[in-house]
Amino acid sequence: MFSQGSVQFAQSTCLTPTAAENPSMLKKVRFQNPMNDFEIASAPDDTVSALAFSPPSVEKNFLIAGSWDSSARCWEVEQSGNTIPKSVQSMQGPILDVCWHNDGNKVFIASTDKLAKCWDLVTNQSIQVAAHEAPIKTCHWIKSPQYSCLMTGSWDKTLKFWDTRSPKPMLTINLNHKCFAADVDYPMAVVATSSREIIFYKLDTQPREYQKIGSPLKHQSRCIAILKDSNKSPKGFALGSIAGKVAIHYVDKQDNKRNFSFKCHRMNPSAPGGFQEVYPVNDVKFHPVHESTLATVGSDGVFSFWDKEKRTKLKSSEAMEQAITKCAFNKDGQIFAYSVGYDWAKGHEFYDATKKNYIFLRPCFQDLQAQSNAVA
């Protein structure tokens, strides 16, 4: 139930029926998640590659997850905390990204089968709306006063913009390198490529390149998220790399003094003189209400909340048994979702087929309470 602006989940209703009826199963669930967060029922059979909550246009909370098992799944998250599996849609290859249409009735799915589809949640039907010559790594819906379109970024080194009523793209931009990560917050789009370039696009009137810079980090880009100012205007990005580091970077040169990077998802050596273990940053997301707060998740199985303005860590979780692969905040920022599974960062020899994949929900109001008070 909701109470005084915070989310309080009824713990008994959040467990799967099997766990609620079987005390030994309850122990297993808690062992898999040392934070005692709430497990979503009917998680995918393979690693989760994308998570997205429904937009503000939808009164209820729905969560979409894309997975390497080639499925996209939808759950309703009730106010009680109970999660209800609603529907499943399949592709011909592993799913790499998902995004919502602004009306909240449709979801776009990008896959390694080189296609993107529009999934109508009302009719549970899907149609092809985009195609590339290589796997599609990212998809984002753009809603502007002048036009609406789907932006797809691919390993075929192109960025394409689609009027979903037409089989041909309305615009194709050559990236020269593979698209590794992207984000959209109108009127800005940002793309991170395999060559460690970061490209900004202005989306008003029509999409066009605005600025191109080299990555502020020395290692391969893995995830990116647009940062906004107190007026909710996009101003720059947070970039995560494979080397346990995040860069905060602003577009305007006048804000260059605010640029910085910080280390995260690293494990200190247990013995003096030992090596520090460094893990990839698998995802980074900004809080939808407190614009200076962001979350990172990593291959070390840890999620962390940060305040970029104070340059401090608000909270870190205990380590899960496996990597945390993706994360998402719901529309009002009270619920934090994250997925746990193997991300292959340690290679095939560490893969354990007996370990399940999970998606957990965490009421994060208290975790961010200090930030909330500071903003107020």
From TrEMBL:
Gene3D superfamilies membership: YVTN repeat-like/Quinoprotein amine dehydrogenase
Naturally occurring in which organism (per UniProt): Laodelphax striatellus
Official protein name in the record: Uncharacterized protein
Keyword vocabulary terms for this entry: Repeat, WD repeat
Pfam families linked to this entry: WD40
WD repeat feature ranges: 88-129, 129-172
Domain of life: Eukaryota
Source lineage: Eukaryota, Metazoa, Ecdysozoa, Arthropoda, Hexapoda
